[in-house]
Every structure is written in structure tokens, then in C-alpha cells.
Amino acid sequence: MRTTLAFVRRNLTIYFRDRAGVFLSLLSAVILLLLYTLFLGSLQIDSIKESLPAASDDDIHAFVNCWVLAGIVMITTFTTSFGAMGVFVDDRVFGRFKDFRVAPMRRFQLILGYQGAAFIVSSLMSLVIMVIGVALLMAVHSVDVISWPGLALAAGYVLLLSAAFSAVSSFVLTFVRSSNAYTAVSTIVGTLLGFLAGAYLPVGLLSSTVRDVINALPFSPAAMLLREPLAGRARDTLAGGVSQAATSLDSYYGFTLSVSSFDIGTLFTVVALIVVLILFTTLGALRIGRVLR
């Protein structure tokens, strides 16, 4: 355990040494949140106005902004963990694995060291983005837009997502052999993730086939977990107590998901993410063993 913790500390030190990179990681998420809220969100606002003409503008804006925040926080859990795993790529590129071969470290300790550092970075960054987003929402709308119990639940989900996606990142990056490849993969991941999570466009806009494919991946269900605690109160206010309106919003904006006739519930998603965490941690350790040969 001491060896693993020492390796986690070493990886965190290397990551946070690049202060400009850490700042830009936070800034990119904040910029994305502001861009969507100020510009791209108008598409969703116009759509809701057509469907719910009696709803007030403030309620519509509050709902869309909360929905966007949930998606951005989910994206941040993956992109920041992926970014923190860049230490692994650097170690491989600069030949530091030669030292690891002779060091008294097991492959599980190595993967847990990288993965643990990625988890801490992802959790911190995502929680900071969530706090900034909530502060902006409170300033623009009302302190009642998001409840304190909802924030606590969302923070718990952020920790789960950070752990699961750190495991996925640790496995994926064992196949990356150069800094250029890492940069290319990071760009592709950052571009696609918002669409795969249903964070940029509601899943209700997609065809049933595309929707089933996206919902079968872990990203859309992960975003679903955050939508209820972060945007559930705003949705209820917007629906105005009309169950049919709430059901329609849930289906269209991804508060409830399904693959064909199978409904993806909260408990199923949590268990699935725990399985993802265990599975990809194990696979990552096996891959680390091959890399060190």
C-alpha cells in the first residue's frame, strides 16, 4: 500500500507541476459551459418554448442551464482523468519503464498508482467545475434551482464516474506509444464525448437506432446519473406539476434512458460503472505487464 500511495503522490506531483496545463484544463470546461449557456443553449430554449408555451423564460433558462451543467461535469470526469494519464504516456515515451522493471513494484501497484492519481485529478477538477457552475446558476437564477441534497448526491456520483473513467483511461492509454498519438486520441475523445453522452444534443433528437447505440455505452447513462440531482428540481419547476410534461422532458432530455425495451435505471447504471471500474483496472494491469516486458 505504501508503494502504491508513493507512486500516486509521484504522479500527482508531476501532473500539478504543469500549472498552465492544470489551469487550461479547468478553463476549457468553464469556456464550454459558458459557450453553451450563452449561445448554443438557445436552440433548446426555443424548442421548449414551442412545447411548453405557458412556461416562463426564467424557468426554461434555468432548466437548460442545469441540464447543460450536468453534461459538462460528466465530460470533465472523463477528459481530466484522461489528461492525468498523460504521465503514463510520458513515462513510456521517455523510457522510465526501464526503471520500473527493476523496481520492487508489481503491475497492479503501477496501474493503481497511475489510476489513483487520475482519479484524484478527475474528482478535484470535476467538483471545481460543478461548484463554479452551481455558483453561476445561483447568481443568474435562484438559490432554489439546485438543492443541497442534490449537490451532495451529484458529488458522490462524480467520485464514482471519476473512478470508473480513470480505469477506462488507464486501459486505453496502454495502447498509446507516442506523445503525438496521445494528443490525437485526446482530441478525438474530447470531440466525440459530448455527443456520446447526449450532453450537446438531447437524446430525443436522435433516431431510435442511434439512441440505442449511445445509451448502450457508459457515457450517456453516466450523464443521466448527474441530471436528476443537478437538473431535477429545475425540470419539476418547468413541468409545473404536470406529470405528462415531466415524463416528456425526462425522455427527451435523457433523465430516463433505455436500450430497445430495456430501461436503464439508476441502480443498474451504478452497478455497471462499478463493473467497468473493476474490469478495466484488471485489464489495465494485464496490459501494464505486457508493456514492462
Automatic annotation (TrEMBL):
<protein>
    <recommendedName>
        <fullName>ABC-2 type transporter transmembrane domain-containing protein</fullName>
    </recommendedName>
</protein>
<keyword id="KW-0046">Antibiotic resistance</keyword>
<keyword id="KW-0472">Membrane</keyword>
<feature type="transmembrane region" description="Helical">
    <location>
        <begin position="110"/>
        <end position="139"/>
    </location>
</feature>
<keyword id="KW-0812">Transmembrane</keyword>
<feature type="transmembrane region" description="Helical">
    <location>
        <begin position="264"/>
        <end position="286"/>
    </location>
</feature>
<feature type="domain" description="ABC-2 type transporter transmembrane">
    <location>
        <begin position="5"/>
        <end position="227"/>
    </location>
</feature>
<feature type="transmembrane region" description="Helical">
    <location>
        <begin position="21"/>
        <end position="42"/>
    </location>
</feature>
<dbReference type="Pfam" id="PF01061">
    <property type="entry name" value="ABC2_membrane"/>
</dbReference>
<feature type="transmembrane region" description="Helical">
    <location>
        <begin position="181"/>
        <end position="201"/>
    </location>
</feature>
<dbReference type="InterPro" id="IPR051784">
    <property type="entry name" value="Nod_factor_ABC_transporter"/>
</dbReference>
<dbReference type="InterPro" id="IPR000412">
    <property type="entry name" value="ABC_2_transport"/>
</dbReference>
<feature type="transmembrane region" description="Helical">
    <location>
        <begin position="151"/>
        <end position="174"/>
    </location>
</feature>
<dbReference type="GO" id="GO:0140359">
    <property type="term" value="F:ABC-type transporter activity"/>
</dbReference>
<dbReference type="GO" id="GO:0046677">
    <property type="term" value="P:response to antibiotic"/>
</dbReference>
<feature type="transmembrane region" description="Helical">
    <location>
        <begin position="62"/>
        <end position="89"/>
    </location>
</feature>
<dbReference type="GO" id="GO:0043190">
    <property type="term" value="C:ATP-binding cassette (ABC) transporter complex"/>
</dbReference>
<keyword id="KW-1133">Transmembrane helix</keyword>
<dbReference type="InterPro" id="IPR013525">
    <property type="entry name" value="ABC2_TM"/>
</dbReference>
